[in-house]
Every structure is written in C-alpha cells, then in structure tokens.
Write a structure and sequence with these properties.
169 residues, 15 strands, mainly beta, globular
Length: 169
C-alpha cells in the first residue's frame, strides 16, 4: 500500500505511489527553522486546505474543498503581529509585514498551506506552503514547490487527514 503522506526529501517528493520533482528552500531542510532563514522545516505536518486563483485555474480542475483566494487576502509573516503565520482576509493597508496571496507571478495560483508553526511562535517561521514553482528545481524561501500540473494532481488527491512529511535526507 502506498504511503498516504506527501513525503518530501532533498531529492523530490512522493505521494500515493507517484514521484514528483519539487523545489525546497534555498536554506535546505532544517529541524531548527527560524523566520527568514530560507529553510524548509523538517517534520510531519497537517495541511491547511487548498487555495487557488479563480481567474487563473478553472474550478473543475480542483476538489470541492478548494477555496478561491480573495482579492485582498494576505498571509502575515510579521512575528509582532497577533495574526502571525495565518491568513488574513482583509489585508488592504495591513500594518504588519505580510505576503499577498494574489501575486503577479503564478507561484500562488494554487497554494496548500502547511501546518508548520501552528502555535504561531513569533520568529518560528511562517507562510510555508505547497505552491507552483518559479522554474524547475528553483529554490524557494522555505516552501515546497511543484510544477502546476503536478500540484493540481496532488491537490486533487489531498484529503482532510493528509499529512506532509519533510525529511532532511
């Protein structure tokens, strides 16, 4: 039986018996992650749903549980913000550091938040996602990135109990 987790190593990813090339953080994979270190966190984590750009990805390609990204959604990455490491649905003029979820590039056209630092420990790291890669194997700021077609396939197989296991090996 295939492992029900998305397993990510420095060599790539596997999920439900399939292998995928992927990108990891420019800082490698680390057990001791800190905000801004560019590392992908090692460990096993829950996934936090599926978000997508409805103006770029047809709804019929995604599972029912996928949510369209709103025009003003941001993800707080400021350790001083009470909403640190979480989605904020009204992000216009947001006073804390953040990432816009609607980007000009295609990287956040499809996003699966990784349940890393769910306790929101300030400085512990934030905004860890599965997302579309910039180009094959191009390092990320700490996320795990895939080709769009692969990420659509993965998102279509993710269930509410699917976990991701990220290894330093």
């Amino acid at each position: 039986m295939a492992d029900p987790r998305i397993v990510v190593t420095t060599q790539g990813a596997r999920f439900l018996g399939r292998k995928f090339p992927c990108s990891i953080g420019r800082g490698g994979v680390r057990s001791e992650k800190r905000e801004g270190d560019g590392a992908t966190p090692a460990g096993e984590f829950a996934l936090g749903g599926i978000l997508y750009r409805p103006d770029r990805i047809p709804r019929n390609l995604l599972p029912r549980l996928a949510r369209p990204i709103g025009l003003n959604w941001i993800w707080s990455d400021d350790p001083g913000d009470p909403a640190y490491n979480s989605l904020v649905a009204n992000g216009f003029d947001y006073p804390f550091g953040h990432e816009f979820m609607r980007r000009a590039d295609r990287q956040y056209d499809l996003v699966v938040p990784v349940g890393y630092n769910e306790c929101r420990i300030p400085g512990g790291g934030s905004a860890i996602f599965l997302h579309v890669w910039r180009k094959p194997r191009h390092p990320t700021a700490g996320c795990v990135a895939f080709a769009l077609r692969d990420l659509i396939w993965i998102a279509g197989k993710v269930r509410p109990d699917t976990r991701i296991a990220i290894s330093t090996k």
